Amino acid sequence: MISKNSILRILIAFGAGGFIGLFLYNRFAGMPQTGTVRRRRLPQSYIAALVPLAAALNLVGGYIITITRVPIFLDMMGTAVVAFTLGPWWAAITGIITNIGESIIISPIYLPFAVVNVAGGLLWGYGARWGMAKSFIRLLILGIGVAILSSLLAVPIITFVFGGATGVPNDVITAALLASGRSLISAVFISNITASLADKIISTFI
Known about the structure:
Order of helices and strands: HHHHHHHH
Low-confidence stretches: 29-39
Strand content: under 5%
Radius of gyration: 17 Å
Structural class: mainly alpha
Mean pLDDT: 83
Number of helices: 8
Number of strands: 0
Distance between the termini: 27 Å
């Protein structure tokens, strides 16, 4: 059961996200859009609504994983939606809002991983611009690329900032690999890339 304080934090986070989205739209309204929606100015209300709603989708996915303990992440689905719809930089903004929200609502450990969400949004968005969203195979390759990039950024944070464990479900896999004789960074990478491949491919096709 979500507490009243958590609900209040969610409302504050998403309200702030809406204001951030609106402010950034007004600031960068002249930027060309680069997802499936190209080079036409979108309604201000659309931008202001979609970015925080996509961040909300990320937060809900991440919260579900903390409850179910399934060893994937599901906190970048909304980032992918924005990347394909609005373009890479709006996706990056969505990623930043997401991790700020996760750090407030779920745990502060999520804040350093904003760089992963941002990088994933940029790669999805530019991948769409480069034609990687035009077929199933290309989308699959793009999803795998986002997974690899995400792990390359996340593994050093997990290993050197948090000592190899962050309290997420795939820590169990890391522990099993360590018990089998793997080095810490190898165990973290295998654990993370396994979860990331499943997670990012799902997020790419959702």
